Amino acid sequence: MSVTDPHFDVAVIGAGPAGMSAAATAAGHGLRVVLIDSGRQLGGQYFRHPAPGLTAPWLSKLRHGWSHFEQLAARIEASLRIDVLFEHQVWAIEPGFTVRTDRGPIAAANVVLATGSYERVVPFPGWDLPGVVTAGGAQALLKGNLVLPGQRVVVAGTGPLLLPVAAGLSVAGAKVLGLFEANPLRGYAKHPIPLLTNPSKLLEAADYARRFVGNRVPVRSGFIVIEAQGADSLEAVVVARPDGTGRRRIPCDALAIGYGLAPQIDLGLTLGCDHTLLADGTVALRVDTDQRTSIPDFYAVGETAGIAGVQTSIAEGAIAGLVIAGDRTGLKALRRRRDRQRTLADVIRTQHPIPPAWRDHLTPDTVVCRCEEVPAGAITEAVEHLGATDTRTVKLLTRAGMGWCQGRVCGYAIACLAGGGTPTDLLAAAKRPLARPVPLGVLAGQDQRNN
Amino acid sequence: MVIGAGVIGAACALYAARAGFTVTVVDSGPVAGGTSGAGEGNLLVSDKEPGPELELAMRSQELWRLLAAEGLGEGFEYEAKGGLVVAATASDFSALRAFAAAQEAAGVIADEVAADSLAEFEPYLAQGFAGGFWYPQDAQVMPALATARMLQASGAELFLGSAVTGLLTSGDGAVRGVRTTRGEIPARYVVNAAGLWSAAIAAMAGSALPVQPRRGFVLVTEPLPALIRHKVYSAAYVSDVASSDAALQSSAVVEGTPSGPVLIGASRERVGLDRTPSYEALQRLAAQAVEMFPFLERIDVQRYYCGFRPYLPDHLPAIGPDARIAGLFHACGHEGAGIGLAPATGELIAALLVGEKPQVDAEPFRPARFEEVEAA
Lengths: 451, 376
Known about the structure:
The complex is a heterodimer.
Chain A: E1 8-13, H1 17-28, E2 33-36, H2 59-62, H3 66-78, E3 82-85, E4 90-94, E5 98-101, E6 104-113, E7 117-119, E8 132-134, H4 135-145, E9 152-157, H5 162-171, E10 175-181, H6 192-196, H7 199-214, E11 219-221, E12 224-229, E13 236-240, E14 248-251, E15 254-258, E16 261-263, H8 266-271, E17 275-277, E18 283-285, E19 298-300, H9 310-325, H10 331-351, E20 367-369, E21 374-375, H11 376-385, H12 391-398, H13 411-419, H14 423-430, E22 438-439, H15 440-443, H16 446-450
Parallel strand pairs in A: 1-2, 1-6, 2-3, 6-19, 8-15, 9-10, 9-15, 10-11
Antiparallel strand pairs in A: 4-5, 5-6, 7-16, 12-13, 13-14, 17-18, 20-21
Helix pairs in contact in A: 1-3, 1-9, 4-5, 5-7, 9-10, 11-12, 12-13, 13-14
Chain B: E1 2-3, H1 7-18, E2 24-27, E3 42-43, H2 52-69, E4 83-87, H3 90-105, E5 111-114, H4 118-121, E6 131-135, E7 139-140, H5 143-154, E8 157-160, E9 164-169, E10 175-180, E11 183-186, E12 190-192, H6 198-204, E13 212-223, E14 231-234, H7 236-242, E15 249-256, E16 261-268, H8 279-292, E17 300-311, E18 318-321, E19 328-332, H9 338-354, H10 369-375
Parallel strand pairs in B: 1-2, 1-12, 2-8, 4-14, 12-19
Antiparallel strand pairs in B: 3-7, 4-6, 5-6, 9-10, 10-11, 13-16, 13-17, 14-15, 15-16, 18-19
């Protein structure tokens, strides 16, 4: 394929719910689409599923809205206008557009960014022990490999993701010793309208509540994990109120912990898209009602426009597909549905901030950046004695956030520890000049000769 | 009072403090927030032709060694690792030989390495180079840490996040401090070490100091074991550094670091302060690095960074008193060599402040030289 000749009308980056929906819609209107994903299957994180032949009796109980996936997958597989490229890692997008992948460049007239999200975590003593996994990681292991992270599991952190994680672990046979939501949930009572206008969400919550009662999963709100204990692997976690009172030690062999999701937007930020800081401290691409970003012909759908869940992702993919195809039929209804869901998503965001008290429970030797093994004490020294007043300087002086994950894991924590979590620091944590590591041979342009 | 918490400002603060002055450092941003935080930390003599810049570099190498011997070096990863300059063709090699001979006359140690001996220095270097020269005096520091540690050692009071908005002068026209966004700070002497922003500071005194940005990209790989032992670069780099062309030049300088990643610098182009990624520049650096070290082809680049060198038209820094305002000194325009030239610059400024004869002749660095050009 040639870079100068726009081979495709649309390049969709990410084959999760939003990307699948965008690709199916655009192709359904006669456009030539390339759907690119780093993984090996359609569905992304939400519709992650095991390889053919691998199954379990409880698998169907993990699957919410599976019929949506099957319908989208059928439309994509039946379409002659969609090229699906699996195991292609996009590391940059150039204006125009040239989508740079580890297997060569792809030219397209429009781009839909559907790269989803990544999980937010904050450090605490012992969080690098084997047995401590992220909530999303536990779910991916379960959905994709049918593997449990442990037999006696504590689920903790904040946000709606904790509910399906605890329910899924329980269904798959783990003993869930507790679900600890960091924030008090009474705040939802102040926002009845968005809840009542999204009745499916209320029903979903009620369904989880029933399951937790049935499976004897204790649910506590207002508690955080302040320490993971163990010699070589996890043996217990200590939970407490953010101020350190109400301490309890819970023996367990796994902890699934997550503090919500953050949009994966590095490709858009490097291209120069406008962005917006949301109430939970995450940064999303700014879009208009048609999912257009500030860069013409560049669209952001689903989590890249702010975490809002699977239904919103599917609606927004369809909106972008219709807009690019120039067909406004049905657009109004889709936008209304999207707006209603986004209103609720904004409420959810305000109810699940990361409690700032996580900082109080760090010790100087708590590792903050796991790739580069930078302890909290080194960051404190850089801030207090070496004149590092912002994220960039802390990274320069300590190498925190400079390792393989490029700060996806520790970026939020460093932004808080370095600059107190100012908007500039939080934006710096979302930026990555290369969205993925790229081999020098590919960067050198040898991919163009080899392909 | 030093304006600028980069490496030049830190060195000025350190040597002024050692000369007995009480020092304050003011910067609109954080420590090493400009060029100092965006470089590789090269302390090179190998790329400099005989002349005033080489003299300054030679004195600086000596001072870096002394700072390291004081124990400061561990805090900023000082490595006297040496540099290997390789020539692709026989004609490049003979040009390099002539260049090295002139450098040797100026005190640089440069040993010729025959083509079949290059592998003794760099076992993973590509085959087919015509030969090279070994420069044992070339060294490396981690530039942001070097800046922070020198500032710390100076004991200077830091005013970070405070932009200088004007110079305060007394009745006789001499400087008496600066005005900042956070209030006035009095000082008997003011040193302008504001790097990319030093032209604006000079302009507050009515002086012309045409410092312009020259952009560079540096690639950073995944951490590797020590497969690349020295600084290795092509003979073409020297002519790129000396060039005044605005267009993109690149010749890869490849080196390992104590923390593992290999750094691949550096492109040069004059495009103002534009941070838009240039995939052409990245592509050329990558291709040149792979040509030199074929094993790098499969190694991941984790990130790249972009920086701007404060460049003066004659490629020499401006170090010395302002032509108009008594008590105001300039120490800026070191382009891409600021880390290497910092300690000698600081020492020179300190000598000028106390009125001693400096170790290095200050005459070629006179800031007033640009005014004379304009007048002529």
